[in-house]
Amino acid sequence: MIVLPSTSTGVTILIVGVLFSLIGVSKQDCIWYGVCNKDAIGHKQYCSYNGTAKAMNDEGLQLLAERCSFLLESEQKNFCCDVEQVKILNEQVKLAANILDRCPACMTNLVRHICEFSCSPLQSEFAKVVETEKNKDDVPYITSIDLHITEEYINKTYKSCSQVSVPQTGQLAFDLMCGAYPASRCSPTKWFTYMGDKQNPYVPFQITYVQHPTNSTKDGFTPANPKTTPCNKAVNSELPACSCTDCELSCPIAPDDPVIPPSFKIGGFDAFTVIMTVVFSVGTVIFLMGSFLFTKDSINDEEFQVGNDGVTDDSMYKPEPRYFEKLGARTEFFLENIFTRWGTFFASYPWMTLLGGIVIVVVFGYGITFVQITTDPVKLWASPTSKSRIEREYFDSKFEPFFRIEQIIIKAVDLPYINHNTSNGPIKFGPIFKKDFLANVLDLQESIKNLDANGTSLNHICYAPLKDDDSTVQASDCVVQSIWGYFQDDEERLEDNEEDNGYNVTYLDELYQCMKVIPFLVLAVGVDNIFILVQTYQRDQRRTDETIEQQVGRVLGRVGPSMLLTSVSECCCFFLGGLSDMPAVKAFALYAGVALLIDFMLQITCFVGLFTLDIKRKEENRLDICCFIKCKKSDSVHNTEGLLYKFISGAFVPLLMKKVVRAFVMIIFFAWFCASIALVPKIDIGLDQELAMPEDSFVLHYIKSLNEHLSIGPPVYFVLKGDINYSNTSSQNLVCSGRYCNDDSALTQLYLASRRPNLTYIARPASSWIDDYFDWTVSPSCCKYHPNNGSFCPHEDTSCLSCNITKNQLKRPDVHDFGKYLPFFLKDNPDDSCVKAGHAAYSGGVRYNFDKKSLNVDASYFMAYHSILKTSADYFLALESARKISTNITQMLQRNLITNGLPMDLALEVELYWCTAK
Fold first, then answer.
1. Residue 610 backbone phi and psi in degrees, to 5
2. Do 257 and 759 touch, CB atoms closer than 8 A?
3. Which value, to the nearest 10 degrees, does the dihedral of the CA atoms of residues 588, 589, 591, 594 take?
4. N- or C-end of the chain: fewer Cβ atoms within 10 A?
């Protein structure tokens, strides 16, 4: 009896132990293990498995250590994945690493959850199999899972990655990694939804992220909540914080926007208006007082008259002449005497004068054979000594000339909108998305690509960034950016059709997912002198015993001083224009000034002779053209005054010379003068392009379309030249924008400028060949070489070997390998496996030479984009801002290079300047 209790206890213990053993055997830690299917596009899919985690061999543990080392921290060796799955995991992570690895915190945060749901031994706690299918061997494989995860992790991971940039394009990573949404519209939920969407070409099966507000267990699942690191914090001792260009929290505090001072006002009114109003009022009062109160000598309005010869009666002026009046009279008498003798001489020898004039004109005309026509707008409008032209010529000498971007703006007219019903609700598309309209656009595009102009076609002149200089370019290699690029120019893609919950999925759903003439004023100057001379002769009466030649000389003596004064004034105005540095304006002004001088000389020589001959023809009653025919009846016409002359001399001049009227006219023009000065500060600098075009010009319609539809401005190139040793880490940090780079580096400053486009007119960060080169050297799938000679080999060539690039402590190429592999980077074409390859983006932007078997970069540029520039003021302000940025960066580079030991004369040659393609 005593044994029974003891026996009962032992049995109880035994039963409990058996139960625990049974539970342990049936525990389901995993949802998959191994690979047992491959879909039509090559995705490997995992076998459904509901058992416990299995031991990982040494190879698998080494592979896990590459990206998922945190899973090995507790010496864990059992996982819900095999070696092949780990290889797939690493390959998939590499695709994201191509873009996100430049920000260690972002990449580490993202990879943590991928590692956990792929291999965690506690997989079933947060993952649930939703759908499976069977392969040909009747083995189930997974096609859809639910992944329970905390909102905290998704939000923090998204925040750490939201500012990661893509140096090649100046865009954000989320512009490429958020599906149908650009970075500006992306969100944590949208990003993770896209990463798990089966429609994503990189996702092997559907992953539905089920978000939990907390990490507490709900519905039998405890959401995964991996550790996250803010982007401005170092992940560990080997991985630093993300740089400013990839993490806003790492950026220095930007200065406040400059305060625009208020316009100068007086009493709440514009100061210039107030000041000029006061000047006008005071000036008017003084003028009126001087005219009516303190004037001793005045003109009697009633006695004012115009003589028969068209001049006023000098007898009305009684005051004693002063010194300057006497000097003026003497000068006028001297000039009249000179021109009288001059005119008499050339009127006396008309045929000799005309012959001499013809000879001189022919001799001078021979110079036209030496004329060189300039059509280059840069040479026409930019001074040879201007900073912009010198920088442009340097750009053209070092890099390829700017490519002309030919744009065709196609607009649908009088076509209805398209209402497309989808499972997510109706979507409204513009009329350009109609199938027939798109087909017509493709036909137009293909017609342009097939144009042949005397043996020259598009492939001879187009931009083909993926082709080498010595390779043959086909039309298909040319860059043609249009909506058809999404469909690969395949019209049959418009017929794609699927079903989605009863809705028709068409090409519209696919689209929804991806979404100078300067006018010259023609001047007819100089002709007025001829009119004055002829009219004065017509109103003159020949004196007794005066010959025709003497009369012409006397008339010329009378009007010659006026002709001389106007011609000299006009020439001086044009010669002042010759002071301009603008070649076209300078050439025009000098040409016009000299032409006026020659015109004046011909008027007082050849025209006087020709005019004398015409007077004699008229007096001999000969016809105008057929002057050898003499009429019987005199065709002389008596001089009569015209209506205009009678009005001017009899009404307008007497009225204008009245004292009150003269004062009123002076006040009106003084008011006009003051108003003009007050409005000077409000005049916009420049000339809008629209004002230089006729209203029916197609160029005008094109410019208006650009202003209406353009979403970004012209490209801007920041060119860095000078003696910079790019293989030196300190020099690299002065330029680059990634990890370990200086906070005030050249590219960081350009990035910070792009964050304030309203002030800097820079819309996107500049592309950075040096940052992409660093990333390219880190990727194991990028750099390859031919095993027989060690020369460059495209990374997609499987017969080549991977480069063994020696890295320094910053994981950058060392001094030797930096120069050795830079040409490889500039020759490699990018694709999904190596997005950082630099041939397309940078082959024309880096110029280097080999000096003493080492590579030296002579010059390189970093391309950004201006914000939209529509008015002349926009262009001027953009230029001012770009030059200010360039000056700041140049001063930073020179100061640091001198500090690092570069001789001052070499350091001062280092310069960053800007150049735009507009």
1. -65, -35
2. yes
3. 170
4. N
Identify the CA nearest to 783 among candidates 737, 725, 836.
836
Q: pLDDT tens for residues 449-462?
A: 888 888 888 888 88
Nearest Cα neighbor of 385 from 225, 582, 233, 533 is 582
Nearest to 841 by CA among 743, 766, 740, 731: 766
pTM of the model: 0.73
User: Residue 210 in contact with residue 146, Cβ under 8 Å?
Assistant: yes
CA atoms of 515 and 519, how far apart (whole Å): 42
Q: 3-state secondary structure string, 838-849?
A: CHHHHCCCEEEE
Q: How far is CA 562 from CA 340, 549, 760, 792, in A?
A: 13, 20, 55, 80
User: pLDDT per residue over 494-548, tens digit each?
Assistant: 887 777 667 777 888 777 765 632 222 223 445 566 777 777 877 778 888 888 8
Give ∠ CA 431-435-437 in degrees, rounded to 5.
Answer: 60
Partnered with residue 857 across adjacent β-strands are: 848
* CA distance linking residue 907 with residue 909, whole number of Å: 5
Are the beta carbons of 203 and 142 closer than 8 angstroms? no
Q: b/e map of 325-335 (b: 16 or more CB within 10 Å)?
A: eeeeeeeeeeb
Element (H, E) at 55: strand 54-55
Q: Are 484 and 511 in contact (CB under 8 A)?
A: no
Cβ–Cβ < 8 Å for 248, 751: no
Q: Amino acid letter at 183?
A: A
Burial class (CB in 10 A: 0-12, 13-18, 19+), 872: middle
The secondary structure of 434-451 as a DSSP string is SHHHHHHHHHHHHHHHT-
CB of 514 closer than 8 Å to CB of 180: yes
Within its chain, how far is the Cα of 20 from the centroid? Answer: 72
Question: Are 43 and 204 within 8 A, CB to CB?
Answer: yes
Rounded CA Rg of the chain: 43
